[in-house]
Amino acid sequence: MKFADRIQRLGTETAFAVSSEAAAWAAQGHKIYPFHLGDMNIPTPANVMEAAVKAMKDGKTGYCPNAGVPKLREILAADVGASRGVRYSMENVAVQPGGKPTIGKFFLSLLNPGDEVLYPSPGYPIYESQIEFLGGVPKPYRYLEGERTFTIDLEMLKRQITPRTRILVLNDLQNPTGAECSAAEREALAELVLKHDLYVLCDEAYFDIRYEGHSISFVSMPGIADRCIILYTFSKKFAMTGWRLGAAIGPKPIIDVIAKLNVNDESCSNHFIQYAAIEGLTGDPSGPQEILRVLKERRDLAVEMLNGIQGIRCLRPNATFYLYPNITGAMQRRGFSDYESFRRSLLQATGVSVCARIHFGRPLPGETDFYIRLAYSGIDASEIRAGLAEFKAFVEG
Questions:
Q1: Residue 48 counted as domain residue
Q2: I want to staple 198 with a disulfide (CB 3.0 to 4.6 A). Which of 68, 106, 193, 296 is the partner?
Q3: Are residues 96 and 245 in contact, defined by beta-carbon separation less than 8 angstroms?
Q4: 372 with 272, same domain?
Q5: Which residues contact 152 (CB under 8 A, 6 or more apart)?
């Protein structure tokens, strides 16, 4: 069978490949500590689940409007607008079956073959995959490890801009590093966006997964909101990863195109789940608050234990549910020089399953340090303690 040429350009989310490898190891009777995949083992809040059941019983099981249930769109516009300092209406919202569809539909709306897209590396691998699949030219920019957080290499990003550059992908509160933009970074990026007439995908999947301080959206910058589509998802804040519900939020002309793509792709997002989302946004907030409490406890434990391992340095991000420790010294201590040998040896010796930098985009020239990503959203504190004790013994032997 001869497939379309574009299929050769389609990538994947390689964390799922790591997950399959861990599952295969577990099937042989081994204990696994699953730090690899950013799924959640925290229950969806009870009031959200009850609202979904009620909506089903009330007959919300057929088609609904392609752009989403109007009430949900209105509530999302008000909620997201208030938290970002921007005025939105329901016409600025197109409900999606998860967060990923916003990525592909945004690119489909604006990207022509040969157009260039600035995107983070390391970063969510679906950016790179979709850019290449649709015939765009990926132009990565890096993050640099600082004393307290990772920062965007703005000089590298500037060098990547050409007359063909069309789009900037900005994942503030970032996967995998946990980095958040400083005020100076937002100002510099806004200046570049306006100067070079760029459109922006603001991936804000982790905007509400925050333990200290307040999240600030790039759309709040002067002159920027009309150039930005926000990727919104219910997966993180409400522990609804498997429910598959999100939204694209931004200027009406782009939202209209995305809604038309909804018609062509999935017709509409799940009807009754949208009523569960309404309850999440307007009902008892104790569920999301408890999710944050649990995640913060896990973060603090994991950061403390990782920094207690010789050859590992781990920053303490204020948001997301990921850690991105520098393991260069640990690899040298054990005599490893490549990610896969280290990762597989760690899995087979301890059951600790992690992703590495190579699972978040192609490494860039000049990278010398080694990093892994640990997700703590799907592993209890007791298992974090036990798994990282095994990790420490593996490294320090």
A1: no
A2: 193
A3: yes
A4: no
A5: 120, 141, 142, 143, 144, 179, 181, 185, 189
Q: The tokens of 332 are what?
A: 């040298």
Of 244, 263, 282, the domain-final residue: 282
pTM above 0.90, yes or no: yes
* Integer Cα distance of 225 and 85 in angstroms: 10
Contacts of 273 (CB under 8 A, 6+ apart): 52, 55, 243, 244, 245
Identify the domain containing residue 293 by its residue range. 5-43+287-396
pLDDT tens column, 353-377: 999 999 999 899 999 999 999 999 9
Same domain, 278 and 293: no
User: Cβ(312)–Cβ(165) under 8 Å?
Assistant: no
* 327 and 239 assigned to the same domain: no
Q: Is 198 left (phi over 0), alpha (psi -120 to 50) or beta?
A: beta
Q: Which residue has the tokens 């197109």?
A: 94
- Condensed to tens digits (0 to 9), the pLDDT of residues 266-301 reads 999 999 999 999 999 999 999 999 999 999 999 999
